[in-house]
Fold:
Amino acid sequence: MTTVVLNRRSLLAAGGSTLATGLLATGVSGLLLPARADGLAPTETMSGGANNYRKGAAIVDRIGKGGFWMSGTVRRAGDGVPLAGQRIQIWAHTTEGQEHEPQSHGATLTDKDGKFRLEMPQIIPIFGQPHGHLAYDSGEFKTVFLRPVMRSAKETSLEAHFVLQSA
Amino acid sequence: MKGWRSARASLIWVALALAIGVPIALAAGSELIAWRGPVYILAGFAGIIGLGLVLVQPLLIGGYLPGLSTYRGRRAHHWIGGALALAVVIHVAGLWVTSPPDMIDALTYTSPTPFSPFGVTAMWAIFTVAVLAALRRRLRLRLRTWRIVHIPLAIVIVACSVAHCLLIEGTMETISKAALCAAVLAATVKVVADLRRKRALRGESA
Structure:
């Protein structure tokens, strides 16, 4: 007869390694929905993501004078098919305005490969972190707000990726 | 001998002035200020000055600042405690005006920024000490009881303020910020250790 030795330490160690593997393999969304092995998990709204959001920012070629690139992709949850023509709204505290000000907001559409890219003024740290905000809020899919943080305030680009699920 | 003592006294005051003045001056020269509104700038500096006051507090109560009697040191500690609470109020109010949703996230412990919960915890500890200190006579708290309440809260204030400040990417320059935080920690460790030693010398039980 074998005895299963299961003490708190081994449980913690096992839990920790599972957690680490999950994080490495699929990112945070995988951690939240570990059972969805059948397909791509939808992106969850990030905390603080919707802060200073202004609904219905206009589609623009560029926000302000530009110099900084916000880019990313939009895909469908489950099969991961790229979604074309999706409207992504972008805003941040930049060298040309504060987060809540209208001139700091703009929107763009994804291309046929589900990619988007919008030039905007340089993002600078606000509230202790250099970060941007992005929203998908068009109704067809569930609304998602993202708040990516730049690795350094000196960077001149930032990426954010959406995986959307039906509303 | 006397010359050495007065030189040492001025050295301590100069070191204190530099430890607080240099981070403030470097923050004032930060390029980020150009893109901030006056209220946000005020809120930021209230925070930096607050951290400077957190350094002064253990130095005053430990009697490490030359030229101040124990009595005057304690009076100054009392008033600077009030000034610290005021600095925190200005810091939080200014940030609230700058971006209400971000401040609400911080105060409700739901902010995505890792430094926010430390700042909010330090704030509540500061307010608690300030209110208790104001009511101390009315509550008839004896020195021993007061210390049992105040010392753990002071440690929370120091640890959380330092963590809050170090994790923020803002106007403060990195090295002067780290030096000020190190001074705050060192002063606190020293005053707590000295208090314990004095108590041991008096033969009181812990």
